[in-house]
Specification:
single chain, about 350 residues, alpha/beta, Rossmann fold, Dihydrodipicolinate Reductase, domain 2, 2 domains, six-stranded parallel sheet, about 20% strand
Length: about 350
């Protein structure tokens, strides 16, 4: 099987990480980069390992697609996702797009319809599906080792907030951070969230509140079988980047993220676990998951795997839960999660 030629649009913080992973993924022979800042694309290309894939830079996305790429990876700003996904689908190549599909669910639905009508192959970058801990939790639950679930607890806590300018356009804490938890909640349990009740607070930088966001939030989710799940997020977890999932079942309990780098310490005398140091950011916490996601996408392009990559319909379903949580945060009332309906799918 010949090596693939992949295209990557966007080489900012997360795009540069994708570039490093793709350039060293087995089966990738050539990687073409494009960015709104050509100088940044050249700098990223120049910093990639010399023993990896051949790397070059295209003038724009149209030129990248004309270069004969076998697939397209989209890591640009959220507002540009719809047009780039459509461009990849229209060019007849598989697309891996960073979450979300579009800035909101309303803008996502026409993209889903376009993909369905054209028979496109599109996957969304929810990397936790490729993390070893989340995969083991899913396996244990599906194998019946936990029994039936009576409670689920998920949290995503950053050590420090990103710039307020980013938060002003992020869509809110639930859409930016907790959407990952909403995705794995659906993926692992196989259930739908039917109602969300959310609360939030601002005890950090008051500018976060002034741009319409909160720095800490909690959502109580009711699944379609009555199971309760609590999803927590914060921008001010000084202990480090903390991402965990706890599945409590009638027969057993598993916890994702309870390792030596967990951003917490025990208050029990004589207990030395975890030894630390804690992860500083999501990039360290999910380095392995991002590499596994890149390998899964290569398998998908080759037709040899990639089943666990997130389909766009599932990504938008998770975004619907995030939208409901955001609405509940604003109204103070529980909000029903509407079912996803896509014309042409």
């Amino acid at each position: 099987m010949s090596e693939l030629h992949l295209g990557l649009a966007g080489v900012g913080r997360i795009g540069a990480m994708h570039a490093a992973n793709l350039a060293t993924t087995p089966g990738v022979g050539r990687l073409t980069l494009v960015d709104a800042d050509p100088g940044r694309a050249r700098a990223v290309a120049g910093g990639l390992p010399a023993d990896g894939a051949r790397v070059d830079v295209a003038e724009d996305v149209a030129a990248l697609l004309r270069s004969g790429v076998d697939a397209l990876v989209v890591a640009t700003g959220t507002a540009t996702h719809p047009e780039l996904v459509r461009a990849g689908v229209d060019a007849g190549v598989p697309v891996l797009c960073e979450k979300p599909v579009a800035p909101d669910v309303a803008l996502s639905l026409p993209v889903l319809e376009h993909v369905a009508e054209r028979g496109g192959v599109v996957r969304i970058g929810h990397q936790r599906r490729h993390d070893a801990g989340y995969r083991e939790a899913k396996r244990a639950f599906e194998a019946g080792e936990l029994g039936w679930l009576h409670a689920v607890r998920a949290l995503t806590c950053d050590a420090a907030p990103p710039p307020v300018a980013f938060l002003a356009t992020s869509g809110g804490l639930f859409r930016d951070c907790s959407v990952h938890d909403f995705d794995v909640l659906r993926w692992i349990t196989g259930r739908e969230v039917v109602e969300v009740y959310a609360r939030g607070s601002n005890n950090g930088d008051p500018e976060i509140g002034r741009v319409g966001d909160v720095d800490t939030a909690l959502a109580v989710c009711t699944l379609d079988d009555g199971t309760l799940a609590v999803v927590t997020a914060s921008r001010y977890n000084g202990a480090g980047h903390d991402v965990r999932l706890e599945l409590q079942g009638s027969l057993g309990t598993v916890v994702v993220g309870m390792d030596e780098a967990m951003a917490a310490r025990s208050a029990e005398p004589g207990t030395t676990f975890p030894a630390g140091p804690a992860h500083a950011t999501f990039a360290e916490r999910f380095a392995g998951a991002y590499r596994a996601q890149a390998a899964a996408f290569v398998d998908l392009v080759n037709g040899t795997g990639g089943e666990d990559l997130c389909r766009p319909e599932d990504a938008v379903a998770a975004s619907r839960v995030a939208d409901a949580a955001q609405e509940s945060l604003l109204t103070g009332a529980p909000v029903a999660v509407r079912a996803l309906q896509v014309a042409g799918a």
